[in-house]
Amino acid sequence: MTQQHNTARQLIGEAWIRKILLVNAVASGGTGLLLLLFPGFVGELTGLDNQAALMGVGAYLLLVVALLLITASRKVVSPKAVLTLSVIDFLWVAKSIVLLGASGPYLTAIGVTAVIFVALVVGVFAVFEAVYYKHNRYIASFNR
């Protein structure tokens, strides 16, 4: 048996993290396409009127989707890759808090609700990803 097969059998929660990553990819992809294709509509709805910035965030989310799909589709879901995704998601939550603080007076009620909801969902993804890494971090260090 190869080391890769041994590692795959030793990983804890690999099946559920694949599902989490795929759900994250679908949610992020939908949000990214919405921002990229309809920035004017999103801007009017939320109070965020910088269409170029909204489109930039949409493009960024599509890159994150690519990372999520690549990670989820590997034979072995790398704990280090999942840690990277967790950090990206925690940073999204932090940036959402900054956005609420900086743009709060300009956001509509829908905008505030949307930012909080998305941050909560992304935060849940980040926690699941961090837990996967925590349970498999020692395997990750042996898998160089």
Please tell me the overall pLDDT.
Answer: 91
Q: Between the first and last Cα atoms, what is the distance in angstroms?
A: 18 Å
| Global shape | elongated
Quaternary structure type? single chain
Overall strand count: 0
Question: What's the helix-strand series?
Answer: HHHHHH
Look at the helices and sheets and give the structural class.
Answer: mainly alpha
Number of helices: 6
Question: How much helicity do the residues have?
Answer: over 70%
Uncertain segments are none
Which range does the strand content fall in?
A: under 5%
Largest sheet: none
Which key phrases capture this entry?
single chain, 144 residues, mainly alpha, 6 helices, elongated
3D architecture notes:
- With 144 residues, the chain is mainly α.
- The protein contains 6 helices and no strands.
- The protein has helices at 3-10, 14-37, 39-46, 51-73, 79-103, 109-142.
- Helix 2 runs antiparallel to helix 6 (109-142), helix 4 packs antiparallel against helix 5 (79-103) and helix 5 (79-103) packs antiparallel against helix 6 (109-142).
- The longest helix has 34 residues, at 109-142.
- The two termini are 18 Å apart.
